Structure formats: C-alpha cells, structure tokens
Amino acid sequence: METKSGQSIVEMALLLPVMLMVLFGIIEFGYLIFAYSMVSQAARNGAEAAAQLPPYQTWLDLRNNPPANYPGFTADPCTRGIMEAIRSDIVLFDGTANEGRRIEDYVTIRYPNGSQTRNLSDRGPIEIEINYPVRSITPLFDMIGLPNGTLNLRVVQRRSIENLGVDPTHPSGVACARDINDWNQNFRQP
Length: 190
Hints:
Elements: H1 2-52, H2 57-64, H3 77-87, E1 107-110, E2 125-135, H4 140-143, E3 150-160, H5 180-186
Antiparallel strand pairs: 1-2, 2-3
Helix pairs in contact: 1-3
C-alpha cells in the first residue's frame, strides 16, 4: 500500500506545476483579453473625441518641452475633452494599478501626416496611441521571464478630422488653445 500512495505523491508533484501553469495561463489570458478590450475602447473613444476637438500641434509640442509657466497637458479644453473621452467607462485606469500614474502618461496624440493636415479640406487623420503596461494578476509573467511582471498593450486608433474645435459659446469661437499665451488670454479660469 505504501508504494501506491508514494507513487501518487510523486505523480502529483510532477503534474502540479504543469496544472498550475495551465490554470494561471487561462486566468491571465482572460485578463489580457479584458485589458486589451478596455485599452482599445479607450483609444477609440479618444480618437472620436479628437476628430471633433483636434488640438493644435503647438499645444501638443509643449508636452515634450514644457516651459516654466506650462499649466499642464489637459489645461487645453480639447486635450481635456479627449482625455475625458478616454477615461469614460474605463475601469482599468484607476491609478492604483500603475503606482498612481495617470492615463495621460500613456497617451500620445499626433497627426501622422503632419500638423498641416489639421484642416477640413484635407481632413487629415488624427491618431490616439495608448501604450499601457498591464501587470500580471498571477505569477505566470514572472515565471516566463517578463520584466516586472508586465506586458505592454499598444493600441492605435485613427480618425479623420470632422471639426476644428469650433465652440460658438466661447468668446473667441474656438475650443482649443494654440499655445500658452492663447490659453492665458482665452481659457484661463480667473
């Protein structure tokens, strides 16, 4: 009798790691499908908002080289509208999953054909890219050697410009700031 129970323990010891890997793989794969659909929907929402509120390239350039008086990327109503659309009904971007980093840190807004296509005659495309690191919920990513247990999901959505950010309720008639001086004159809250 002792031989059979010992044999069962050895068989279980050999099969348990494989069974755990399969179980962790199923859980992780389901989570990655969920995360990808959330990131994809966020990029789609952002691209649709950007087609209506395309920010000026001069404002987008300030993000990479901010001057001392830079009020922040989302101070411009157009970029704020895009980011609000990205955040809408998304549960993955709560800030706790990535050490409190905001979704703005993972989003890039650009004109792939150049900023001169920001007009209604060319209707140049505007593109939203989200490059979001997804943390593993099981030890599987660590077991297969992914750095820090993360996998980067990169989603790009592109839309043609449909509007130039016209806002008839705003005194200047536009919804987007060209630069900091324009923002100070037309959009800064007293």
